[in-house]
TrEMBL record:
InterPro entries: AAA+_ATPase, ABC_transporter-like_ATP-bd, ABC_transporter-like_CS, ABC_transporter_ATP-bind, P-loop_NTPase. Keywords: ATP-binding, Nucleotide-binding, Transport. It comes from the Bacteria. Belongs to the ABC transporter superfamily. It holds the Pfam family ABC_tran. Gene3D superfamilies: P-loop containing nucleotide triphosphate hydrolases (3.40.50.300). GO terms for molecular function: ATP binding; ATP hydrolysis activity. Residues 6-238 form the ABC transporter domain. The keyword Transport applies. It comes from Xanthobacter dioxanivorans. This is ABC transporter ATP-binding protein. The keyword Glycoprotein does not apply.
């Protein structure tokens, strides 16, 4: 496994004081630079809370979080984030939306226009740079949001159920698009999902969270080809992994046959 890029040591998070809700309990995890790690588990198990802690948007109640050995005390530099909702600004065209991180960072937006156009071309949105979000489908909007998260060449990309609201065909295509982007750029990616198949397709490693309070119950390195096409889902190896995780959720009482 690569040397630790992210280190979590005994991370717990409680909301509402001592008598409040314990969302995370004693999370210990190391993530190597360039890994694609999916956090897999049921709704309400603390996956998104842990992601927000990694982003510096929440502070752990106990334990420590570090990025390259430095404590995470706020949003790290070279961070990209994508959420379930694309959060595009309706009064900006797609190119302007992709350029927002440069604007927020106090950079000269014109310097990033070539990079933004390159990203849009990579995800098939070259011809929609000057369209407004209302003219785009949900999948196209989410592609634009991913481009926005990659504009500043993040070394760490955090994604919270970014494809959860999309239809199955669009979700499959965006899985392929994201996988190809990760192969080209190798940014460390932490991806929250409820989908077993999505997690297996995208990830180099899957970390399974228990129901609340979230604890890590399995940490599995996947032995699948680094470059994947949708046909990999039909292989015995892929199906073996999906059966394994489905059985794990059955033993936790989360899936009933």
């Amino acid at each position: 496994m690569p040397s630790a890029f992210i280190e979590a040591r005994g991370v717990s998070k409680r909301f509402g004081g001592a008598a409040g809700v314990l969302a995370l309990d004693a999370i210990g995890l190391e993530i190597g630079e360039g890994e694609f790690v999916s956090l897999l588990g049921p709704s309400g198990c603390g996956k998104s809370t842990f992601l927000r802690c990694l982003a510096g948007l929440e502070t752990p109640s106990t334990g420590t979080l570090a990025l390259e050995g430095r404590p995470i005390c706020g949003p790290p530099e070279a961070l990209g984030i994508a959420f379930q909702r694309d959060a595009l600004l309706d009064w900006f065209d797609i190119l302007e939306n992709v350029l927002l991180p440069a604007d927020f960072g106090g950079k000269r937006k014109a310097d990033f226009v070539p990079k933004a156009r390159e990203l849009l071309q990579m995800v098939g949105l070259k011809d929609f740079a000057h369209a407004y979000p209302a003219a785009l489908s949900g999948g196209m909007r989410q592609r634009a949001a991913i481009c926005r998260s990659l504009l500043m060449d993040p070394r760490l990309l955090l994604m919270d159920e970014p494809f959860g609201a999309l239809d199955a065909l669009t979700r499959d295509q965006l899985n392929v698009d994201l996988h190809h982007l990760w192969l080209r750029r190798r940014m460390t990616t932490v991806f929250v999902t409820h989908s077993i198949s999505e997690a297996v397709f995208l990830s180099s490693r899957i970390v399974v969270f228990s129901p609340r309070p979230g604890r890590i119950v399995e940490n599995v390195v996947l032995d699948l080809p680094a470059e994947r096409r949708l046909a990999v889902k039909e292989t015995p190896e892929f199906l073996s992994y999906t059966r394994h995780f489905r059985h794990l959720f059955e033993t936790m009482g989360l899936i009933h046959d």
